[in-house]
Amino acid sequence: MPFIRPAKGGSVQYSFARCRQGSSTAHVLTMAANESHCLKLGFNNWPGLLHIRRSGEGLTVHGPVADLIAIIIAQLGSCLQIVAPDDLSHFGSRLPNGTWTGNMGLVTRREVDMTGVLLIVDVERYSDMDISVPVLNLGIVITYTRPVLAADLAGFVKPFTALSWCSLLVIAVVVLLATVVVQVLVQYMPQHDTRMVGIDCGMWGRGRIWWTSALWTIGAPLAQAVSWEPERNVVRLVGGIWLLMSLVVSTVYRSNLKAMLIKPHLQYPFTTMAELVQTDIPCFTLEATVVHGYIERAPPGTELSQLNDQLVVHKDIPRAIVDFGAGKHAVISDEFAVRTTIQALSEKTRRCQFYIISQSFFGSMSVSFAFPKGSKLKKRVDVILTRLKEFGIIHHLFYGAATNADFCSKADLNDGPSLRPLSLGDFYGVISIYFTCVMLSINVFAAEVVSEWWRQTD
Fold first, then answer.
1. Last residue of one domain, picked from the residues 217, 235, 263
2. Which residue blocks in 287-351 are alpha helix, DSSP H?
3. Which domain holds residue 257?
4. pLDDT, tens digit, for every residue of 156-180?
5. What is the pLDDT of residues 371-413, one digit of tens each?
6. How far is CA 290 from CA 85, 260, 293, in A?
7. Do 101 and 90 form a contact (C-beta atoms < 8 A)?
8. Helices then strands, each counted (H, E), the chain
9. Which pLDDT value is given to residue 407?
10. Distance between CA 226 and CA 351 in Å, rounded?
11. In sequence order, which residues have a C-beta less than 8 Å from that of residue 290 and are 6 or more positions away?
12. DSSP 8-class letter at 357
């Protein structure tokens, strides 16, 4: 089905030709009542806004921009010739000699009357072409695969940070040494309280002191019963302080672990450009676009210049979408293309698996049609675009095509993810530690049995 209606009073005629436009080959699809008065428009693919498909010797153009072009052509009372270069994703870049490639070259060489696709306006395009009134204002954003909940082998150590665990280890060593020193000193203190004298209050060996101190230091935070009890007030003071501290630490640990299991917190790979350049995550952008040019020309030392080192650049949009859906790279592009791509992928997988960082780049960028310099068509199109904007028709055409994109693309980093039932993998870490301790206990028991048997045989 054609995406536009012919001019009034004419019958629809279709013809297709492959002709040479300047130095490049172009596909020209004519949909007109009178070909001699048709406007030539240069088209490119823009994900979410305009899609061109080749089927044998035919072209199919659809999307919000195609609907807008149909309205413009109808208001002009004219007809349309679609000029689509062989490389449908190549908007065009400015060469060192001042000429342009791609669709931009068709405009500057006056081989088309206007672009049939919207363009992000920058200084170079504005200086070499006539630009229509702004149709949209888009921001440049970065999107990536949202992390998912999964079993974590080391999840039982996550309630505390690495610094906290190191601090607890240092404190445990200090308490162990303090308990040993206090017990050694107690043996040389006079026994003023006869109630404290017992079978264990004699002169202990060095091995017995280290064993009881280590047993008390380790058993208290693990909430395990210990056969030895601290004796003498000074020893009880050290042991009581450690016992109270162990109670607080173990209570906080269990509380944090329970909270993380009930409502775990996902750590996003990056939430700003500065965090992205600190990772090794590749980032895709379409070749020969304004965004690509900004990143290439970024001053050394800036975040954009650092992003250039991990940039993935090509013109194969379908491959880029597949790689993005598989989580192979992030994407930096205009907000509309990102949201519509996320919507399309989410509708296929039936789940929201992507997020957009809140930071926007380059500010709000104007998106317009381009005309050859001095084009008389620009004024007529500007009047039509202004009226369509005032009546909200443009907003309806573009944002009505992405009604469900916001739901899956918004990433509220303050909200935790949805709950997930615990799986066996969540307990692998604890089970491995338990198994290791059991094996260690069996080895100690076997060593004691063998040692006792060896002593009796001697």
1. 263
2. 290-296, 303-307, 317-325, 335-349
3. 155-263
4. 777 888 888 888 899 889 888 888 8
5. 999 999 999 999 999 999 999 999 888 877 665 555 565 544 4
6. 19, 43, 5
7. yes
8. 15, 16
9. 55
10. 52
11. 120, 122, 125, 365
12. -
